[in-house]
Structure formats: structure tokens, C-alpha cells
Design goal:
Shape of chain A: globular
Radius of gyration of chain B: 13 Å
Oligomer: heterodimer
Number of strands of chain B: 11
Order of helices and strands of chain A: EEEEEEEEEEE
Shape of chain B: globular
Order of helices and strands of chain B: EEEEEEEEEEE
Number of helices of chain A: 0
Largest interface: A-B, 21 and 22 residues
Amino acid sequence: IAGITQAPTSQILAAGRRMTLRCTQDMRHNAMYWYRQDLGLGLRLIHYSNTAGTTGKGEVPDGYSVSRANTDDFPLTLASAVPSQTSVYFCASSVSSGGNEQFFGPGTRLTVL
Amino acid sequence: GQNIDQPTEMTATEGAIVQINCTYQTSGFNGLFWYQQHAGEAPTFLSYNVLDGLEEKGRFSSFLSRSKGYSYLLLKELQMKDSASYLCAVEDSNYQLIWGAGTKLIIKP
């Protein structure tokens, strides 16, 4: 693979179910991010990781959790999905945090019913 | 609070020039990014400004005035493929990006 990938591409999920969105990059980037994008709103940061083994909360972290066990992978978990989590989710990475271009994955379109 | 303002939508003609403005109020400032996002796709990087002034890159230029909390993206010689949303994002004091809602640019022949 080259760049950053996400899986699944899209998903329809029943409310209350647990779901993990996967994100993998092969650029050896230190920093990784999860955003959600909703119509009429800007991208909003959910969680981030400046380096493997560390994570931090963004603007809208409630209902989501992340882990960063290694450099390449940064999964996002919805413990108990709710309809307000219906959105397009983008994973991104950058060489490091601060002043660096972020490269985005293709996105996951999630619908919670 | 943190706020990034951009026009919701703009229309321009193929071959013309268009300027997309962005004003911001954020807790700290470490730089300003512009990204392009075609419908149904991921954002892609266009430019980064950290100092005042104009940065030129081919048909695209980006300007920054930190004292005014203002930036613009200038697109010259517009092509149909430039139809997309243009996202302004400010890197705040925590090195996190605060994003505007984006400007949808419609190019007409």
C-alpha cells in the first residue's frame, strides 16, 4: 500500500452497536488524527496521536476512543453508536504535529440508525 | 471561542480569476492551511502560510495577514476541474487544526 487507507468504505450500523474504524499508513508518519465531517460544518478533530503510544482528545471526543499501539495503525472505536455519530470519518497523518501537511485517507461513511 | 469564516459558495467562469477569503479568530496562531476537497473525496493540501505575505504556487496563490486575522486563496486561469470545496484551517497554539466549513466553488463554462 502507499499512503493512508481506511476501512470500511461505508457502514450502516444499528444504534447501540460497537464499531471500529480502521486506519493504516505506510509513510512512517509520527502524528495521526481522526476527524468527522458533517454537512455545513468544518472538519472536527475527534482524537489525535503525536507519536506511537500516546493519544489526546480533540474537539469532539465523547463517545469515541482510540489507540496507537504502533506507528502505522490508529483505529477509532465507537463503543455504543448513536444516530448523532452518523458522519463521514477521515483519518489523517503528518510527519509530525505542528506546521506539517496532513495526508488524508479516503474516508468512511458511517450511518447509525 | 475559535472561529473560522469563509463564504459558503462562490461561482466563477472558466478562465477567470477567483479569490476565496478566510477570516479567523483562534486561541493562538501557528500557521494557516488551504486544502481542496472534491465532492466525495478526501481533502488534499494546497498551501501553508506562517508569515505575512503572498505564497505563489502555479495557478494558486495564498495570502496571509496575521494582524488582520485574514487570508485568501487566489485561483487563476480557472479550469472546470477546479470545481471543488476549498477549506481554510488554522493551526492553533496546541498545534491542532481548526477548520472552516469550506467554500464550494462552482465553475461555469
